[in-house]
Amino acid sequence: MRNLLIISLDTAKANDSARAGTLAQTIGGIVDDQKPESVYFTEIDGVRTGIMVVDIETAMDIPRIAEPWFLAFDAKVEFHPTMVPADLEAAGPSIEAAVKAYG
Question: In the β-sheet with 47-55, what is the strand arrangement from edge to edge?
């Protein structure tokens, strides 16, 4: 299942990595291992943040994705199941059933 991840790096830990000259290398290594569909880096609430779209087949994949960020940067990692338009279209009958039952 496609998931949107929001990865907020601990500022002190990321600063230490930047000072050591390893920030980009460490992030690049994690991204290379995880092979996201897409990845972007930005700032959210004043914190270095990565936004990635990854495929998670089972719950057992969650530690494989989250642990490198926890260990390298004491990061906060959020997982949000996500749909593309085709997924939403395919969900139409389920939405209609919910409307009939609860709407």
Answer: 38-44, 47-55, 2-8, 76-81
Report the C-alpha gap between 29 and 32 in whole angstroms: 5
Whether pTM exceeds 0.85:
yes
The two tokens of residue 32 are 């290379």
Q: How many folded domains does the chain comprise?
A: 1
Of 43, 40, 9, the residue nearest 26 (C-alpha): 9
For residue 55, give the 3-state DSSP assignment. Answer: strand
CATH code of residue 26: 3.30.70.120
| Residue of 49, 42, 79 whose CA lies nearest to 62 | 79
Residue with tokens 């290379």: 32
In eight-state DSSP terms, residue 34 is H
Q: Domain residues for 32?
A: 2-102
- The per-residue pLDDT for range 38-86, each reduced to its tens digit, is 999 999 999 999 999 999 999 999 999 999 999 999 999 999 999 999 9
